[in-house]
């Protein structure tokens, strides 16, 4: 029971954070808020990039199959600071973290 509650809580947190996916109104607002916001927005978009890519491909191949749209990259306020955050997020994405964890022996 405890594990399922933790999983449900994590899923809820991820859904809440996905509201700041590239292309959303919240993301456009954050991109216009200054350098620090752009860096962290780019970092977040880099972390969720694998999921965003799958969603964008599905949305392109089957329009309106999903109730939302996501973009891989924020195009509203592109800057070098956003790019640095994005690539750092890509380097620290969950897939790489999972690979490192499984390499250490933690199933």
Structural description of this entry:
The protein is mostly helical. It has one domain. Helix content is 66%, strand content 0%. It has six helices and no strands. The radius of gyration is 15 Å and the shape is globular. The two termini are 21 Å apart. 21% of the residues are buried. The model has no long low-confidence stretch (mean pLDDT 77).
Helices and strands, with pairings:
Blueprint: H1 2-17, H2 25-31, H3 35-47, H4 49-61, H5 80-91, H6 94-103
Key phrases:
6 helices; 107 residues
Low-confidence stretches: none
Structural class: mainly alpha
Kindly report the average pLDDT value.
Answer: 77
Distance between the termini: 21 Å
Short précis:
By secondary structure, the chain is an all-alpha fold.
